[in-house]
Specification:
The protein is of the alpha+beta class. It is built from three helices and four strands. The protein has helices spanning 2-8, 29-41, 68-75, and strands spanning 11-16, 19-24, 46-51, 57-59. A four-stranded antiparallel β-sheet has the order 2-1-3-4. Helix 2 runs antiparallel to helix 3. The longest helix has 13 residues, at 29-41. The chain is globular and about 30 Å long.
Length: 78
C-alpha cells in the first residue's frame, strides 16, 4: 500500500531531524514548517506524507493515526 502511495503521489513530503522537505512536487514553506512543528511536538523522529492528485493523503507507518487529522488540517491550507 505505501509503495503504491509513494509511486503514484503527486506530492511527497519527508520529515526528518525536525524538518519537512517536499521531495516530490512543491509546497509553500509555511505549510512545511507547520507540518514539521506538528510532528516535532508529537515526538516523531521521521516519516513521510504522500498526496495524490485526487486529494487522498497517505502517511508512513512512523506517523501515528492520532495525528492524521491534524496534519490534514494543515495541508488543507494549501
Amino acid at each position: 500500500m505505501h509503495f503504491l502511495s509513494r509511486l503514484f503521489s503527486t506530492t511527497a513530503i519527508s520529515y526528518e531531524k525536525g524538518r519537512c522537505v517536499a521531495v516530490k512536487g512543491k509546497l509553500p514553506g509555511s505549510i512545511l514548517r507547520d507540518l514539521a512543528d506538528c510532528l516535532g511536538e508529537a515526538g516523531i523522529a521521521r516519516g513521510e506524507i504522500w498526496l495524490a492528485g485526487n486529494g487522498r493523503v497517505s502517511f508512513s507507518r512512523d506517523i501515528p493515526d492520532a495525528l492524521y487529522q491534524r496534519l490534514r488540517n494543515i495541508l488543507v491550507q494549501m
